[in-house]
Amino acid sequence: MINIAQQYITHKMKHLTVDELISYSQQYNIPLTNEEAMKVISELRKNKENPFDPHGRKKMLRKLAAITSDQTAHSVDLLIHKFAKQYGVEEWLH
After folding, report:
1. Residue ranges per domain, the chain?
2. 2-39 pLDDT, tens per residue?
3. From CA 39, how far away is CA 50, in angstroms rounded?
4. What does residue 30 show for φ and ψ, rounded to 5 degrees?
5. Which of 4, 56, 64, 66 could form a disulfide with 50 if both were Cys (CB 3.0 to 4.6 A apart)?
6. How far apart are CA 33 and CA 84, in angstroms?
7. Buried (b) or exposed (e) across 26-54, using 16+ Cβ within 10 A?
């Protein structure tokens, strides 16, 4: 069960559109510009790290910070937590 849910959420993250990411950021009141969203989407699609593994998520967020900003990476981390909470699996993101 855990593996299936993780695969679903990871798949969803890799297939987000800019509009969906902007919509989620507005829904959760997390600042994200269109330009930042495009960079984030591009990086998420290339990302090979497991967002449910703390070390993998940190590595992914460091890459995002390098191409955008620390604030944007933090915003994406918040969105990942909100997204996991929406599916009832936030405790998997230690």
Report:
1. 2-92
2. 677 778 878 888 899 999 999 988 988 888 899 999 99
3. 19
4. -115, 120
5. 56
6. 22
7. eebebebeeebbebbbebbeebebebbee
Q: Model-level pTM?
A: 0.81
Task: Tell me if 43 sits within 8 A of 56, measured CB to CB.
Answer: no
What residue has token string 């593994």? 53
Token pair belonging to 21: 């990411």
CA distance 73 to 60: 9
Give residue 93's Cα distance to chain centre.
12
- Per residue, the 3-state secondary structure of the chain, as one string, reads CHHHHHHHHHHHHHCCCHHHHHHHHHHCCCCCCHHHHHHHHHHHHHCCCCCCCHHHHHHHHHHHHHHCCHHHHHHHHHHHHHHHHHCCCHHHCC
Check: CB of residue 54 under 8 Å from CB of residue 10.
no
